[in-house]
C-alpha cells in the first residue's frame, strides 16, 4: 500500500514538473495536458488549487475567459485563501470590466495580508474610479508607507487629490516628483493634464512636448495633446498629433472619433 502511494505521488510530481517545464517553453497546450494528468493522478491534492491557477492563466492567453473564470473558481473551492488565485481572478474581472467583483477579491486579500502592495494599488485604483476618493487616498497612502518609491501609487494619489478638491496639494506633489525624477515622461504628461484642466494651456503644451521628447513612441501623449489642441482651437496640430498616434498603434476607433469631431 505504501509503495502504491509513493508511486502515485511520484507520478503527480512528474506531471507537475513537466507541466511547468512546458509552460516555461511556451508550450501551453502541452503544459495544460500535464497539469490535468497530475490532477487525474491525485484528485485530492490541495496543491491542485495552484494547478487550476496555471490552467486559468493558459486559458486567458487563449482568450477563453469563461473557462479561465471556471478554473479560478475550482481552485478557490480547494484553497479559498490562495493569493495567486484571488489575484488572477481579480485581474480577469478587471479585464472584463467588472471592477466591483474585483474589489471583493482585492479586499479579501487585504483582510488576510494588509501589506500586499499589488492588491492595495488595485483597490485604490478601483475606489478612485468609483469616486470614493477618501478610501482611494487611504489605500495609496498605506501603500506608499510600505514602498515610498512606488511611482504609480504616487501618481494615483496626485490624481485623487486633484479630483478631490486638493488642487494645490496635487500640483505641489507632481512638481516634487518631477524635481526628483526629471527624466520620467509620465510625470510631465500627468502635470500637463492637470494644467489642461486648469486652462493653463501654454504650460500644458510645454509639458506635453517634454513628455513626447522623452518618450516619442507613446501614442497616449499625442492623443492627450490633441485634446489640448482641440480645446484651444488648433485643429491642424490636433489632426497631426492624432495621425501620429495612429502610426504608433493608438486605438483606431478612438482616433477616428476624435478626427470626426475636428471637422
What's the gist of this structure?
The protein is mostly helical.
Structure, described:
It contains 15 helices and no strands. The protein has helices at 2-24, 28-41, 48-61, 65-78, 83-95, 99-112, 117-129, 133-146, 151-163, 167-180, 185-197, 201-214, 219-232, 235-247, 252-261. The radius of gyration is 24 Å and the shape is elongated. α8 runs antiparallel to α9. Mean pLDDT is 94; it is low at 1-8.
How are the SSEs ordered, and which strands pair?
Elements: H1 2-24, H2 28-41, H3 48-61, H4 65-78, H5 83-95, H6 99-112, H7 117-129, H8 133-146, H9 151-163, H10 167-180, H11 185-197, H12 201-214, H13 219-232, H14 235-247, H15 252-261
Helix pairs in contact: 1-2, 2-3, 3-4, 3-5, 4-5, 5-6, 6-7, 7-8, 7-9, 8-9, 9-10, 10-11, 11-12, 12-13, 13-14, 14-15
Amino acid at each position: 500500500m505504501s509503495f502504491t502511494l509513493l508511486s502515485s505521488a511520484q507520478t503527480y510530481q512528474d506531471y507537475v514538473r513537466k507541466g511547468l517545464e512546458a509552460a516555461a517553453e511556451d508550450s501551453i497546450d502541452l503544459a495544460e495536458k500535464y497539469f490535468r494528468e497530475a490532477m487525474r493522478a491525485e484528485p485530492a491534492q490541495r496543491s491542485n488549487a495552484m494547478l487550476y491557477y496555471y490552467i486559468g492563466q493558459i486559458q486567458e492567453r487563449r482568450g477563453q475567459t469563461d473557462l479561465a473564470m471556471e478554473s479560478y473558481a475550482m481552485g478557490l473551492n480547494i484553497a479559498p485563501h490562495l493569493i495567486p488565485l484571488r489575484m488572477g481572478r481579480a485581474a480577469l474581472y478587471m479585464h472584463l470590466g467588472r471592477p466591483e467583483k474585483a474589489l471583493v477579491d482585492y479586499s479579501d486579500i487585504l483582510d488576510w495580508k494588509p501589506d500586499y502592495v499589488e492588491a492595495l494599488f488595485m483597490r485604490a485604483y478601483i475606489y478612485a474610479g468609483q469616486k470614493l476618493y477618501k478610501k482611494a487616498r487611504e489605500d495609496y497612502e498605506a501603500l506608499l508607507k510600505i514602498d515610498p518609491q512606488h511611482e504609480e501609487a504616487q501618481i494615483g494619489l496626485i490624481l485623487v487629490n486633484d479630483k478631490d478638491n486638493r488642487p494645490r496639494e496635487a500640483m505641489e506633489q507632481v512638481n516634487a516628483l518631477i524635481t526628483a525624477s526629471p527624466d520620467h515622461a509620465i510625470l510631465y504628461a500627468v502635470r500637463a493634464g492637470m494644467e489642461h484642466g486648469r486652462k493653463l494651456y501654454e504650460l500644458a503644451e510645454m509639458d506635453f512636448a517634454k513628455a513626447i521628447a522623452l518618450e516619442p513612441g507613446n501614442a497616449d501623449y499625442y492623443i492627450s495633446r490633441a485634446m489640448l489642441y482641440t480645446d484651444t482651437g488648433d485643429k491642424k496640430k490636433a489632426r497631426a498629433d492624432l495621425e501620429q498616434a495612429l502610426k504608433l498603434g493608438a486605438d483606431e476607433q478612438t482616433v477616428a472619433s476624435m478626427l470626426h469631431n475636428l471637422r
